[in-house]
Specification:
single chain, about 800 residues, four-stranded antiparallel sheet, four-stranded mixed sheet, binds zinc ion
Length: about 800
């Protein structure tokens, strides 16, 4: 066996193996191999933002560990890697960088500018993923902005359309006036902000009386279509059915009864506007009220707002309040904390507008989503409620069209004459209707040959929510069902309501099948102050800083051990440092082993001594616990078990105790030395294997130097996971091994407490053990005890109550006599 060098440079080692693995092709999925069971991971295609943060480190470490563990378990692992390229942030960046608006240049030119940013950021993030020691199969790399991926997204749109899941309609939708696009419920974030409650007098028709309405949105008065009270509110019962004047709007509306009105909010009288919120939408549908839109797509008041036309919403709010005050109709104002919906991308308060959009029917699938979610194995289990609760909370279908540019085009045209919808045929895609005509001569309805392209594009979740089918090879590989549903879908808690949900609903509609069998959830990474990490708060740690200082293996140990799977995990640099020190400990133990095994030829199991059996039994227990924890995705337990075993039992206890046997075969015998060599060889190898999924680089480096010649596998990552071997478990060895270790560590502690070096010789060590069995065992381990404690002579006497007691072991005492 070759010796390991004393010094090692983590960063150099890591970079070298990252290159070698790619050259060796260790992580390739073998589509032709029909023997091994496949295990497919629905790797999230990240959004190329150029920023790889500690949250990504956590996420990627989780599923990379699973991929590595499953490979060692003998699975043919598909760990693909793609990039979810389209989207608003890149468009906004392009607009800002080139100082243009999306409409200033032709759409395909704007696309090209966006692609430039995406390619630059993909390169940065790909580098970070490799730098982390992740093991995707890079031959599978794809980009959702490529026509080949459009083809799949567009094909799925066509199939869903043909199945009746897609429809076009004018319905209220969430609208971001800054981004000028429709957005889905999942993209609306809720924030508490301060608003002003305006108490406005509404004069009753044909009466001197008035009712007061409290609203935060006086600018919507021109869009007021009715006034509502709760039918059980005694104060207002008598006004139901009467007419009332709407100030500013110069019109009268009817007062209606509505159960949804909360008598305790404001004055208990509310105005229904089109649209202030989702409750307004419900009232309009329920009571068949007219719709008056007063806000434009850019967030300004339109002509229906009369004299306020052209003002922004905020300006109109002020102007209306001022006018109300002049007319004596503003009773008072008060501040209030209210929850409002804002755009996920730009934090602008969203408006509810009516505009013609494309929708996917999702609410009809809520029950199917719930059943499928219950059928999925969740890690941790309680996370399934997040998906089910979200699905049940949705009151609108999924709006899938966006009024943007950098996204997959909707493969639709309209007949210029009769407006007939022309849906692309499956064999036409990929296609951009803005650049190409439909492949038919004339409109099937009216015969016209003039067509108008659909300019809207698809929500980017329409790209990524077919990922598991695309990874499996749909629609090109006839055997894609071998890999579908994905065996594991990894997801952050923040994207359960988007990615996990859209995948579920989309695949149930498309294939009548769930897209994944299990779901591995990671929490968010918190800053050292315990709140969500963010660049603006100063609690932010950039991933490259950590990776460049401590390397990937130490960072991965933090990710694995930071907390229970699914829970939010604070980023703690000391945890990374601990991982770094553990690496050093492992290296030193391996180096010691390599030096003492230079002459060792792996052979049959020799006759083992007590402490050898003890360590092998402890190892078998560790394998059992780590394997179980891996199966349940409890990574913190995995790393804790293996590190504790390695650091304390293997390095601190066994190696110290076995040193003399290894160094002095002339004193203790050749067979005794071989037993210790066998134990070191076996335990170190299996420990490296257990650690390989978490610390892929250093374990590979040690394996290649020390074990490759005898084990013959090209990489430690191609070896088989050590099986739990029950025959190695020995309760007796564990019980008595622990006694010997307790005795040794107590004597060592005594020396250091008395400020004596650990190698201070003991002239005579007398051990009193009343129990016959203890006496026998201690005699068997006398060599190791004497060697570790530097004892010249050792006597074991079957008597009780003399000397110092050994903690935790009744009836075992000792007396150590030092040189005078
Ligand atoms: Zn926005
Ligand atoms: Zn037509």
């Amino acid at each position: 066996m070759k010796p390991l060098p004393k010094e090692f440079d983590v960063l150099t080692i890591e970079k070298r193996w990252q290159k070698e693995w790619e050259k060796m092709g260790v992580y390739r999925f073998d589509r032709k191999d029909k023997k091994r069971t496949v295990f497919s991971i629905n790797t999230p295609p990240p959004y190329p933002s150029g920023d790889f943060h500690m949250g990504n480190v956590l996420n990627w470490t989780y599923f990379d560990m699973v991929a590595r563990y499953k490979r060692m378990r003998g699975f043919n692992v598909l760990f693909p890697q793609g990039w979810d390229c389209h989207g608003l942030p890149t468009e906004v960046e392009t607009e800002e960088f080139y100082k243009i608006k999306k409409t200033d240049v032709p759409p395909d030119k704007f696309r090209k500018l966006c692609e430039g940013f995406v390619n630059k950021y993909i390169a940065i993030m790909k580098d970070a993923i490799i730098r982390m020691g992740c093991s995707p199969d890079w031959t599978t790399e794809y980009r959702t902005m490529d026509p080949d991926y459009w083809r799949r997204t567009q094909l799925s749109f066509i199939l869903l359309h043909k199945k009746g899941y897609i429809y076009q309609g004018t319905h209220p939708i969430n609208w971001c006036p800054r981004c000028e696009t429709a957005i889905a419920d999942a993209e609306v974030e809720h924030e508490t902000r301060e608003g002003t409650l305006h108490y406005i007098k509404f004069p009753l028709a044909n009466s001197k009386e008035h009712l007061t309405i409290a609203t935060t949105r006086p600018e919507l008065l021109p869009a007021c279509v009715t006034v509502a009270v709760n039918p059980n509110d005694e104060r207002y019962k008598k006004f139901i059915g009467k007419e009332i004047h709407v100030p500013i709007a110069e019109k009268k509306v009817k007062i209606i009864a509505e159960d949804m009105v909360n008598p305790k909010f404001g004055t208990g009288v509310v105005m229904v506007c089109t649209y202030g919120d989702k409750a307004d939408v419900q009232s309009v549908t329920k009571h068949h009220l007219p719709v008056i839109m007063v806000i434009t797509e850019t967030g300004k008041m339109n002509r229906s707002a009369g004299k306020y036309a052209g003002l922004t919403v905020a300006e109109a709010k002020k102007a209306v309040a001022k006018d109300l005050e002049k007319q004596g109709l503003l009773e008072k104002t008060e501040k209030l904390q209210q929850e409002i919906g804002v755009c996920w991308r730009c934090d602008t308060p969203i408006e509810i507008l009516e505009r013609k959009q494309w929708f996917m029917k999702t609410r009809v699938l809520t029950e199917a989503v719930e059943n499928a979610a219950l059928d999925v194995k969740w890690y941790p289990d309680y996370m399934k409620a997040r998906l089910i609760d979200w699905a049940k909370s949705l009151d609108w279908d999924w709006v899938i069209s966006r009024q943007r540019v950098f996204a997959t085009p909707i493969p639709i045209w309209y007949c210029a004459k009769c407006n007939e919808i022309i849906l692309a045929e499956p064999e036409w895609v990929p296609i951009d209707p803005k650049l190409e005509k439909p492949k038919i001569d004339k409109c099937p309805k009216c015969g016209s040959s003039e067509f108008v392209p659909e300019k809207d594009v698809l929500d980017t979740w329409m790209d990524s929510s077919i990922s598991s089918a695309v990874h499996a090879g749909w629609p090109d590989n006839a055997d894609w069902h071998r890999l579908f549903p994905a065996d594991m879908h990894p997801s952050g808690t923040d994207i359960i309501r988007t990615w996990a949900y859209y995948l579920m609903v989309r695949n149930l509609a498309l294939f009548n099948e769930k897209p994944y069998k299990s779901c591995l959830i990671n929490g968010m990474v918190l800053g050292n102050d315990g709140t969500k990490m963010s660049k603006s708060k100063g609690n932010y740690t950039a991933a490259p800083d950590i990776l460049n200082k401590y390397g990937a293996d130490a960072s991965r140990q933090w990710a694995a051990g930071g907390g229970a799977t699914g829970s939010d995990i604070p980023f703690r640099q000391p945890d990374v440092e601990y991982g770094w020190r553990f690496q050093r400990k492992l290296w030193n133990a391996a180096r010691f082993t390599s030096l003492l095994l230079e002459d060792y030829v792996p052979a049959k199991k020799p006759r083992l001594e007590l402490l050898d059996k003890w360590l092998l039994s402890r190892l078998a227990n560790t394998i059992k616990k780590a394997s179980e924890a891996f199966e349940n995705c409890q990574f913190n337990i995995v790393i804790e078990e293996i590190r504790n075993f390695t650091w304390h039992e293997f390095c601190d206890q066994y190696i110290e105790a076995a040193k003399d046997r290894l160094y002095k075969p002339d004193v203790y015998g050749k067979e005794s030395r071989e037993a210790a060599q066998y134990t070191l060889y076996t335990v170190l190898y299996k420990t490296l294997q257990l650690l390989a999924p978490v610390m892929p680089h250093i374990t590979e480096e040690i394996y290649q130097t020390m074990y490759k010649d005898t084990i013959k596998s090209q990489s430690i990552h191609s070896t088989s996971w050590p099986p739990f071997d029950e025959s190695q478990i020995s309760e007796e060895a564990e019980k008595y091994g622990a006694l010997v270790m307790a005795l040794i560590s107590q004597i060592r502690r005594e020396k250091s407490e008395n400020k004596m070096p650990l190698n201070t010789p003991i002239k005579l060590l007398t051990i009193y053990a009343e129990d016959q069995k203890n006496t026998l065992i201690l005699n068997q381990a006398a060599n190791d005890i004497a060697g570790t404690c530097k004892t010249e002579k050792i006597e074991i006497i079957a008597k009780k109550d003399k000397g110092k007691p050994v903690e935790g072991y009744d009836g075992v005492h000792y007396v150590a006599e030092y040189q005078p």
